[in-house]
Amino acid sequence: MRGSQASGFTLVELVIAITVLAILGGLAIPAIDSVQRERQAREPINNLYLLAREVRLRSMSERRPYQIVFDREGFKASRFFHPYGGSEEFEKLRIELDQLAERQEMIDASRARGIDLSTEEKDLQQAEIEDGLQYFREYQWPNDVECSLRFWDEMQWAGLSGGEFHRWIFQPSGMCEPLKVRMEADGAYFEVEFHPLTADIRKERSWVE
User: Fold this and answer.
1) 168 phi and psi, to 5 degrees?
2) Helix, strand or coil for residue 28?
3) Which of 2, 17, 112, 136 has a Cα-to-Cα distance from 40 of 20 to 30 A?
4) Integer angstrom CA distances of residue 29 from 16, 22, 208
5) How many structural domains is the chain composed of?
């Protein structure tokens, strides 16, 4: 009868296995870091794309034009109210939204105490319907991002470093103005073109170091 022989790893085999794992780990860490940097750099583009899709769907479902407005602070979305308005219309909209929120808090607190404020609730609902104040979104550029735009009828890129104010209009038909957006940051570059029929990104040039 043969005696059983114990099997196991030798010291050399263990050293080789540990060395291989260390090499694989060293290769994986830069790859993960690169993916993280690209995700962070792409965040403004992703937010703009998602907002464009949302604004387009709202415009189609409500049969009202909507807009995304670009300035040096970021981009904002709302219904399209005044074709010749400026950044002050968004400041006014923000104030009115805050006022409506305060009125709603007052109504909720009064209802919790058993106070009847049905008239105030009706007025609040009417204000939201008439003024279209139920929708407002905004996104601020990261500190290191520089953005420029190019609409279909423009020959050159328009920067946003000063007081420029540009509207991107979405029609109830589902169409929007053809638009190219370029975003540059430290070690990153994105240039995307949005499709006028779907608001999808149809062309992109990008690199991230």
Assistant:
1) -120, 110
2) helix
3) 136
4) 20, 11, 17
5) 1
